[in-house]
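User: Predict the structure for this protein chain, please.
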Amino acid sequence: MTQSGRSGTLSYPIGPSYGLGCEFLVTVPNGTIQIRFTSFNFSYSDGDFLEIYNGGVADELRLIGHYTWKKKPPKLIESDCNQVYIKYNRSSPSSYPSFNCTYQQKGIV
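Assistant: Here is the predicted structure, written as structure tokens:
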């Protein structure tokens, strides 16, 4: 899923979906991106994870963070450029939203 603009919301919906995930490419017009998590509820499974990368591809050298039920993301994440690639993997069924976050171009109020 591609999101663009100065701000927006990303979430993975409610539902007992097993073995599913999603990918987001977020682009702001210029500058950098700030991501704030409003919820992060992962099951106790090492197969459930969220990865955030600088730029438009999942390149290990551009990894900002790998988050699981053991390692939750900080409240604020900042990119180094105007694009982030977010990869989410769900390996276990769940009846609650896995995550919800907002993004905005840095400096926008």
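Strands lie at 2-4, 7-11, 21-27, 33-40, 49-54, 63-67, 76-78, 83-89, 99-105.
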